[in-house]
Every structure is written in structure tokens, then in C-alpha cells.
Amino acid sequence: xxxxxxxxxxxxxALNRSSQEAPARKYVKTRxxxxxxxxxxxxxxxxxxxxxVKKLKQKxxxxxxxxxxxxxxxxxxxRAKEEVEGIMGDGSGGLSANKGVKQDDGNAAPFxxxxxxxxxxxxxxxxxxGKGGFGQVFxxxxxxxxNERLTGAGATExxxxxxxxxxxxxxxxxxxxxxxxxTLGGSHGIPKVHYKGRQGEYYIMVMDMLxxxxxxxxxxxSQSMSAEMVACIAVESLSILEKMHLRGYVHGDVxxxxxxxxxxxxxQEKKLFLxxxxxxxxxxxxxxxxxxEYDQRPDMFRGTVRxxxxxxxxxxxxxxxxxxxxxxxxxxxxxxxxLPWQGYQGDxxxxxxxxxxxxxxxxxxxxxxxxxxxxxxxxxxxxxFDEEPNYSKLISLFDGxxxxxxxxxxxxxxxxxxxxxxxxxxxxxxGDSVPKKKVRLGVPATxxxxxxxxxxxxxxxxxxxxxxxxxxxxxxxxxxxxxxISCVASCSNLWALIMDAGxxxxxxxxxxxxSFLHKEWIMEQWEKNFYITSIAGANNGxxxxxxxxxxQYTQQSYKVSDSFPFKWINKKWKEGFHVTSMATxxxxxxxxxxxxxxFSDQVVExxxxxxxxxxxxxxxxxxxxxxxxxxxxxAALILSIPRRRPSDETQETLRTSQFPSTHVKEKWSKNxxxxxxxxxxxxx
Length: 684
Ligand SMILES: Nc1ncnc2c1ncn2[C@@H]1O[C@H](COP(=O)(O)OP(=O)(O)OP(=O)(O)O)[C@@H](O)[C@H]1O
Hints:
five-stranded antiparallel beta sheet; non-specific serine/threonine protein kinase; Phosphorylase Kinase, domain 1; 17 helices; protein serine/threonine kinase activity; 684 residues; transferase
């Protein structure tokens, strides 16, 4: 069966080494970054749905500790009851897909017998051509007007795409897809829409009638396609995508079901078309001509799980690279007949598929495929968010696999031929003088991630490989020397402890406990006006929680869950909370959010490897890393904009296989101090 898709209509280069040490990543403010910050500041004046940070009245606190089945909170105001939020251990958030948006209109209003919309001829509805998650497509046989033509507005047979007016895609009027067809319809490889309008309960689009989809062809040819056939598909689909991208759109749902051939026994039968523009989005802003801004919302998935790019799974803003990654999976599927992540089921299917995509090296994925498949996959999965694809080069990869006589090719490749003639084919080595770092190695590795901030000179101390029994003596010695704990972490069930003189806290308590996290103790301390300032969890499930007095927090809430709790974080952001600490214990996440955190905005970077590209983009927009945590599978970084900007915004990151003891000393000599620390997945 074709793979269902999920979606709502309308809508860094990491390491090229396994567990070796990574060089320092440094934020240096360039002129371009300053300009981008100014643009971002201007953009902030526009309404944003992202964060609505309400300023709370700073009343004299009345402590109410509230607990319900839904969460653990410390409320420092008289508004306790309405503030109780969060579910401990419900596993919400993470990579959960945006389910339930597809409408099965099985029991919707009956389809009319005849259709006439937007000045079209009258059509009688004939056989069904196909059904997707949003619409149903029928043959429309013209019964008035027109002439005996096979194609065009007066064609005797057209395709009629129906979408029920109550379907999710039509909440705000006609389907969003109509708008996209207005711009793209009739351009190379996109069918033309001749008429559209509403009739009764349905929005109806009258378009060129096409033939079978590539999925149909694959299915009726013993579920495999020859390398030459797939190479032709690659060449032509790349030229279709190139033209679509040139017009500022990404398709967003590239898959075999959405590539249709022309009608059989017509001159179009070997021509390739791309349909279903309902998930298309703009990668380029029409008025400014600028690339759209980067963002990641890990709970936002649009597309079809089997073919979606990893970035789409992770909720990153769609860009040209995503169509190409989906095309790579489409081509491999058509040739090999299977993708390694088929067969996953259940609630966390999207997470498991994404993990498998990340964990399968291009070599593994393309074994038994001709070399261009691997080369293509490698190029597209290593592309940056706003990188312009080198379409000619990508087409060139497959060119050599295709017979030289165009008339004998199983698929027309006219579009690509034109592109090729115009530009001339590129030498494959061209532009490859600087080898790109590969992000997907298929060799997972865990490392320390350490973050350093520029600060006034101060005393800082670190301890690592600390067993439970030795923790107290380190802490006590630190306290005697005027230091308090600023950060804790864990690796191999041993603790790492950072103590310094610059925390601003007045008093501190901490608790080692066999559970993640010790609710009763936390609530007791909340009652005494302590707030959680640092947490760590060990693989054996134990935790170290540090709570302090003298913070600026006015309210605190925490959540423990089995997947990264983005949904909860997003909800708390809207209530004015920000993430102030984060940790993992095995595969569980623990996130602490506080009110009055001193941040004006916050974002998340979550990935199956260290998300270099995303971090650099956030840095350029004024964000700095303020919390990190990682499991064996994923690394998460919280980046925030402080309300009061420090005079020196320098931040550096390091990834090292050993605790970065010598590096820390080097950083100290440059007045850079450890600010966050975690151990977990950084390479995939
Ligand atoms: N112009 C056309 N000519 C012939 N068949 C078509 C045409 N457009 C669509 N179809 C058929 O109808 C099916 C559903 O169409 P389409 O993909 O546009 O609907 P959808 O509801 O948006 O699907 P999806 O669930 O993929 O979003 C296609 O897979 C194809 O088989």
C-alpha cells in the first residue's frame, strides 16, 4: 500500500569523526551576524505565535505546592490551581507526529453526478482515479462545450479533485493547494489547473488528466524498477524540482505516489508530472527574495514518514534539501523495492524511522545500487539549510546511466536535457575541492558536550568521575572555599561537578537519589524557597538535584518523560516559563522550567547528532546555549536570548570523548568558563 502522509495544510556540519575530539566551535560576531540580528530584531516587531511571555506581577510570594496527576509545580503566587501543568512520565512531545489531521471523507456528503465550476464546461463524474488523505480524484467527462481535444481546458476528459469543505485543509476557505497551483500549475512537470470553484459541499479543481503513478508502475512491475528507468526518473524529477524551487517553493511530500506519468497511449505517456501541492511551502520570501528563517519545532511533522527527510522528522523549517532527500529515498525505494525502515508500527513510529534513517550509512542504504545512488544520497543529506542545490551536478550523476538515444528512454528527460544544454554538464569533481564534512556516518558515538561562556575572572572548579560516596567531600570543600554548584552531569554512572564563585546563589542544598527525580524532596525544598538550579541523571536511573536560594525564579515546574517533551515545553513557554535545567537518565528526559528566568525568548535544537548548523544559525540570531542534555540517541540544546545582554557574548562549545579537563584550563586562561555540560549522543 502507498505510505500515508501526515500533515496540516496551510499551513551543521557536525563531526566527520567518530568519537574523536572536536575542535572548539566559537561564536564570533561578524558584520553579517550583526545585520542578521538587526533583521531579526525588526522581525520581532511582527506578531509572533512562538512565545507570548506574559509579565507577571511580582506579588509577595505565597507558596503553594501543588501536585496533581498532571504535574509537579511550585507555585509562588495565589494562582496555584490554574497553574498546575505537566504530566510526569506521560511521554508526550518528542518526535510525535501531527496525527489525526487527515480526513477520511468516507461518510461525507455524496459526490455530485455533474460538475460545473468557475466557468468550466459541464462534466459528468466517471471512475475514481485515486484517493489521498485530503482529496479524492475522479475522471470528469465533458458533456457541454469544448472540442474533441485530449488535453487543455476543453479536453473531453479531465481530472476532478474534490475536497470536502469541512476537511481540515479547508478551515479557512478553499484548499491551500489552489494557491500553489495558481503559481506553479502548467510549469514544467506540474499539471495545469483549468478551473476551480465550490459546488455544494465540495471544493473542486479541474485539472489535466494524467496516467499511473510511479508507485502504480513499480507495483505492477514486480515491485522493482531497472536502474536505467530510475536514473531517467532521477534526471527528470530533478529538473521538475529545480523549476519548482526556482519559483520559490519546496514540494514537501516527494514520494512515488506523487509522481504521475502522462495518460497511456498519448504523446504524454512517458512524461513525468509531480502532483499534490498541498504541503508545498515557500523556501524564499516573495517580497524580500531572502531565504525563509530557520526554525525547529520538534513536534511538527509534515509529510510521509517513509520518505520524509530527517530534518522534516525533527520539525525543521522545510527547505530545498528536504525535497532532494525525499527524492533520494524515493529512487532507492523504486530500485531496491524496500527501505530499511519499513515495517515500524506504533506511536513512536516516526521517532524509530528517523533514528533508523540517521543510523543507516549511505553505503548500507545503497548496497546493490549503482554508484550514483550513494553519491546522490551523500550529497543531499549533507546539505545545509539554505544551501543552493547544484542541480546540474546532481543530474550529471545519473546521466551516465541513461542510454544516449532520448527516443528509447523509458521516461522523457526533456526538461533536464534543456537544463543540461543551457549550462553544459558539470564535471563531477567540480566544486568538490573543499570536501564537505559528512553528517551521517552510520557509526553512532557518544561524547561530552561542554559549553563555555565569557565571564569576568572568577574561581571555577571541576570534578569528574565522582562516585556517589565522594560527592559530599567535594561539595563541602567547595563551599568552604566560597564556591557553589553551578552545573552537574553524569557519565557511566559517575558524576561531574562544576563549582564556582559566580552563581549569585546564597545557599544551596543537593540530593542524590536512586530515582529520577525525587519528588518529595524537591517539594520539601520548594516549600523552603529553594529552586532547582541544576540536575543530572545517571544511566542507572539515579539523579543528582541541586536546589538554591538567591535565584530570580518566581515559579518552577518540572517534567520527566520518555521522549523529549517539546509539547510540554511549548505549552509552558506560552505561560511565561523557560527551560532552566535539563538532564537525562538512560533514555528518560527531565526538564525544569522556571518563571522569571531572565530570558526573553528560547528555542530548542534536538537531533540524533550534535546539531552544528542549527546552533550556528541560532547564534547568529542572538541566542546562546543555556542548557544541554543527551541520551544515547539524541542531543538536545536549549538556546535563549537573555533579557540583559552580557557585554561579551562569546560562547564556545567542545565535543570530546574524554572529560575536557585540559581544555577547561585553556578556556579559563581566556576567561571562558564552563556553563553547561552533558554526555551523550553527538555523532550518528
Ligand atoms: N491529475 C491527475 N490525473 C490522474 N490521477 C490523479 C491526478 N491527480 C491526482 N491523481 C490521483 O489521485 C491520487 C490522490 O491525489 P492527491 O495526491 O493530489 O490527493 P491528496 O489527498 O492530496 O493525497 P495525499 O494523501 O498524498 O496528500 C494520486 O495519488 C493519483 O493517483
